[in-house]
Design a protein that fits this description.
Nuclear Transport Factor 2, Chain: A
Length: about 140
């Protein structure tokens, strides 16, 4: 991670997320792009949701990630949507840069079986309002 002075929400390498689910480093010529502030927090929270909890144990981060992957293949009934919402809330709250979650919704995407849209409005540790919107494909 690339640190900057007085950067409460941190700075990191910038990633590009493609529609087909691939994630790659964002390059500008020979150098990697960086991302800071609320944009970095949004990127970090998105990654936290996509990584399975415990997947990074070998790198010294056994509690990083979420349990969202456990929902793959389950029907999107109310009980499972509530459980998915809890998994999302727990993962988001584990980031120390998140002070409070103001709103969180998980809604099935119309016309796309197994896909959900996650919307989170939160207060960051920097006292900035941050909105995160992520689509998840939970189809087996």
């Amino acid at each position: 991670m690339i640190a900057k002075r007085n950067d409460a929400l941190k700075t990191d390498v910038e990633l590009s997320f493609s529609d087909d689910g691939r994630i790659d480093l964002n390059w500008s010529g020979p150098q990697m792009e960086t991302i800071s502030g609320t944009k970095n927090l949004i990127q970090a929270l998105t990654l936290r949701l996509l990584v399975y909890r415990g997947e990074l144990s070998a790198t010294g981060h056994p509690r990083y990630g979420s349990r969202v992957r456990e929902m793959i293949g389950r029907p999107l009934n109310q009980a499972n949507l509530d459980l998915l919402r809890r998994h999302v809330r727990n993962a988001i709250q584990e980031d120390p840069r998140v002070r409070k979650i103001h709103a969180l919704s998980v809604t099935p995407r119309r016309g796309e079986p197994g896909a959900v849209d996650v919307y989170v409005k939160l207060l960051a540790s920097s006292d900035e309002e941050v909105t995160l919107s992520v689509g998840l494909d939970l189809q087996a």
